[in-house]
Design brief:
Layout: E1 23-33, E2 36-45, E3 49-53, E4 63-67, E5 72-81, E6 84-89, H1 95-114
Antiparallel strand pairs: 1-2, 1-4, 2-3, 3-6, 4-5, 5-6
């Protein structure tokens, strides 16, 4: 039996290969790296990782701990670009943890909007 012909999409080096769906959010958090604690801003989150704004220059491959109050976990910096970092968690987050952070982000956004 002949194997199916791969599509051009399967060879796209920029194709999204994430295992987990990402959700945009906006939450303050802390990132611990090299014994220092940095205030960061979560931009998106999935069970496998996160994207965040970080004022510190943290090298790719650095082991860090992301602290979001109710969630704290070890991760590795996978990429960085002009003050934005991509993290890969050492262990995937539970779907309930991700949902709780999304709910917190929505509640914070609603509170901010109500004060405008």
């Amino acid at each position: 039996m002949a194997s199916p012909v791969p599509s051009a999409e399967s060879f796209d080096p920029y194709a999204d290969r994430r295992l987990y769906a990402r959700t945009q959010l906006a939450l303050p958090a802390f990132l611990q790296a090299h014994g220092e604690r940095h205030a960061v801003h979560l931009m998106d989150l999935s069970a496998g990782g996160a994207k965040l704004k970080c004022p510190a220059n943290i090298s790719v491959g650095t082991a860090v701990i992301l602290d979001c109050g109710t969630l704290g976990g070890p991760a590795i910096v996978r990429w960085q670009n002009e003050g934005v970092l991509g993290l890969c968690f050492d262990s995937p987050l539970d779907v309930r943890e991700v949902s709780a952070l999304i709910d917190r982000s929505r509640a914070l956004a609603a509170w901010v909007k109500s004060r405008e």
